[in-house]
Predict the 3D structure of the following.
Amino acid sequence: MAVHDVRCREVVELVTDFLEGALAVDRRDVFERHLAMCTWCQTYMDQMRATLEVTGRIREDEVPPELVDSLAAAFRLERSGGA
Ligand SMILES: [Zn+2]
C-alpha cells in the first residue's frame, strides 16, 4: 500500500493545514518529500503562502481561477499517468 505516497491532489488538500502548522508530523514528512520533487506543488505552495500572507487565511473561493485550471490539468495528468 502506498500510504506514504502523497500525490498532488493530497498536497492541495493538506496545504492549508501545513501552512497553519496543523499537519500531523508523519503527514508533514511525506508532504515535504513530495514537495521537494514536484515543481507544480512548489508553485502551488508559493501561491497559497502568498494568499495566506495577504488574507491571513486561505479559503477555497479565494483560490485564483487560473490556479484551479492548472490544478484540474494536474489531476488529469496524474490519472492518465497510471499507477
Ligand atoms: Zn505534486
Remarks:
- The helical segments are 8-19, 25-37, 39-55, 65-80.
- Residues 3-82 form a domain with the Arc Repressor Mutant, subunit A fold (CATH 1.10.10).
